[in-house]
Amino acid sequence: FRIQIAPIQDANKSTVGVVAVLRDITDIRRLEEMRKDFVGNVSHELKTPLTSIKGYVETLLDSKPSDNIYNSFLNIIKEEADRLQRLIEDLLNLSKIESHSNYKSKEDVDIVKIIDDTILLLESKAKKKDINLVADLNLSAPNIQADQDQLSRLMINLIDNAIKYTPQGGKVKVSVDPKEEKLILEVEDNGIGIPEDDLPRIFERFYRVDKARSRKLGGTGLGLSIVKHIVEEHQGNISVESEIGQGTRFSVELPI
Ligand code: ADP
């Protein structure tokens, strides 16, 4: 609590009482803590690839490496630079959505087309892992009022995660169905699953079940927090069910 006290005086300036204002600042404190955590996390996430890039460049400058070593170091440097780029793009995306600065008036959006386009975009990534990427799209799904770019981003993040966290030879299924006044989008995989204890936290910025695995797969830890913001921006709901070793299903409900 923050307490402010002020005296009450009568016409003769003698104090006849006091006013005490107690303000509950738990929320303000919590937000401040979250902001500090976020800045700390961002700094750390940016610093790690940069330190690695500097290290490899310095080694190359200081030594006369063989062609093999030279090429393999250059590849690592490129991967780390790509990682920085993805991170910065995700941070910009997140900040745009959070500040509503890219707010466009909502337009008529054909979700079936968005899903088709996303599948086309991610098909080759699925093929590389021999993952069967299938769509079960109810073609009678009506258009909804939405931000087209944001819905594309939402589908990309969910399907990309499903491919990332599903082992070789697995299956990812995307479906859309109208139900009552809602459109139900589902992305289901038969991948590694998420432990029950982690489920409530996966939408937090930078939260990852297995940091090393996410990093190896090129994750930034921001994908699902971006998804959650987009869903909220569209007055929708997102839920997740998962079982370790069996798979994961994300369901998004959007108002029609
Ligand atoms: P990342 O960039 O690490 O993938 P996200 O915000 O997209 O970050 O997801 C947060 C974490 O949730 C991931 O690191 C992963 O541990 C878990 N996760 C997300 N989607 C899936 C999925 N389909 N199967 C298993 N785990 C998942």
Task: Describe the overall structure.
This protein is an alpha+beta fold and 256 residues long. Helix content is 48%, strand content 24%. The strands form 3 sheets. Strands 4-6-7-9-8 form a 5-stranded mixed β-sheet. Strands 1-2 form a two-stranded antiparallel sheet. It has a two-stranded antiparallel sheet with strand order 3-5. The two termini are 43 Å apart. It is built from 6 helices and 9 strands, in the order ββααβαββαββααββ. Helix 4 packs antiparallel against helix 6. It is extended. Strand 6 and strand 7 form a beta hairpin. Bound molecules: adenosine-5'-diphosphate. It comes from Orenia marismortui. Residues 41-256 form the Histidine kinase domain. This is Phosphate regulon sensor protein PhoR.
Q: Into which percentage range does the β-strand content fall?
A: 15-25%
* Strand segment tally: 9
Q: Helix proportion of residues, in percent? A: 40-55%
Mean pLDDT: 92
| Spatial order of strands in the largest sheet | 4-6-7-9-8
Q: Helix/strand/pairing class, anyone?
A: alpha+beta
Q: Residue ranges: pLDDT <50 for 5 or more in a row?
A: none
SSE arrangement, N to C? EEHHEHEEHEEHHEE
Report the radius of gyration as a whole number of Å.
24 Å
Shape: extended
Ions, cofactors, ligands: which are bound? adenosine-5'-diphosphate
Main β sheet profile = 5 strands, mixed
Alpha-carbon distance between the termini?
Answer: 43 Å
Question: How many helical stretches?
Answer: 6
Function: Member of the two-component regulatory system PhoR/PhoB involved in the phosphate regulon genes expression. PhoR may function as a membrane-associated protein kinase that phosphorylates PhoB in response to environmental signals.
Subcellular location: Cell membrane
Protein name: Phosphate regulon sensor protein PhoR
